[in-house]
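Continuing from the previous page of notes. For each protein in this section, the sequence appears first, followed by its structure tokens. Read the first protein now.
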Amino acid sequence: MIARTVLDRSLLRAGETVHMKHILRRHTRDGFAVPAAPTLPKAVVVRHAGSGQAYEKPLAWDGAGVAETQWSIPRDAKLEATP
């Protein structure tokens, strides 16, 4: 399967809300198709690569294999990579 998440912007700041659209497809002989509902993930995890800090949000998929979420970035969220 191929998953992509599109954010409403690339600059994220603590305390703001980011809107995300998640798109999931699977390869077929004829191109791409929407995966079967039982195979779709139930949640997305936003993880800061430097610190490992993680936040999980539930996903509700539509019939086209698209889910939308919004996440209020906590004030204490790490936003920069740690060296």
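Done with the first. The second protein uses the same format. Note its length before scrolling.
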Amino acid sequence: MTATIKLPRMLWETANTEPAYDVEGVVVSEILDDLFRQAPGLRNHIIEETGIVRPHVSIFVDGFQSDLDTSVGEGSEIRVLHAVSGG
């Protein structure tokens, strides 16, 4: 399935990548694998070394919070969001 993944400005500026990518996959983990093939510098910002999504990162598919096993439909929009903290 072809989908679009959109990244927050802080992430794409930090990693010096594009703000959005057309990606292929049927579940979120496959979508992320395709994203990392296109923009390898993003992997460490989204995924931990153990292969799980970093605690401060949320992934949404068509507006619903998702995990790595969530199915992705043709034309879905995936958004990666980073938590912001400080004070």
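What the second structure shows: The chain has a mean pLDDT of 94. The chain has three helices and five strands. We return to this in next week's lecture.
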